[in-house]
Amino acid sequence: MTCSFRRGTVRVPADEEPSWADVASPIVPQTLVNWFAECSRLREVRGLELLDTSHAEHLSGLFRNCSSLAALRMPGVNPERAGKIRMGAMFEGADSLGDTPQHLVELVRSGTGVSIGNL
After folding, report:
1. 23-27 long-range CB contacts below 8 Å, 24 or more apart?
2. Count of CB atoms situated within 10 Å of the CB of 23
3. Which of 2, 6, 29, 105 is 20 to 30 A from 48 in CA distance terms?
4. Over the stretch 108-118, which tens digit does the pLDDT of each residue have?
5. Domain boundaries in the chain?
6. For the chain, how far is it from start to end, CA to CA, in angstroms?
7. Closest CA to 54 of 81, 33, 72
8. What is the rounded CA–CA span in Å between residue 116 and residue 119?
């Protein structure tokens, strides 16, 4: 499969399969479904703290099969809204993060967030 990266929303190198991504300015998306899905060479995503997820309804598949992803700092969502946000397969196949997909989703859902690697 091809990396389904949302070019234009987030800075990435011109490569077809980018190894890094950078959220350079604040974004308030309603959906983050599959934003980075299938980006198997993606090693790090910087600037995720600029994503305002207060209106997001879907985070499903956000990092699905990002098997090289080793550095990530993702804020948690508002725990009061967490039950209304779809997060299925959010970290499925992101094995380099060194934690189970279910635990990573729970960290985001609880409001704690995820901080892995040196960013």
Report:
1. 23/47, 23/48, 23/50, 23/51, 24/50, 25/50, 26/50, 26/51, 26/52, 27/51, 27/52
2. 17
3. 2
4. 999 999 998 87
5. 20-116
6. 28
7. 81
8. 8
- CA atoms of 79 and 87, how far apart (whole Å): 13
Hunting for tokens 């997909």 — which residue is that? Answer: 101
Strand partners, 87: none
Is residue 102 classed as helix, strand or coil in its secondary structure? Answer: helix
Distance CA 35, CA 6 (A): 6
- Residue whose token pair is 């800075």: 11
Report the alpha-carbon distance of residue 91 to residue 64 in Å, rounded. 5
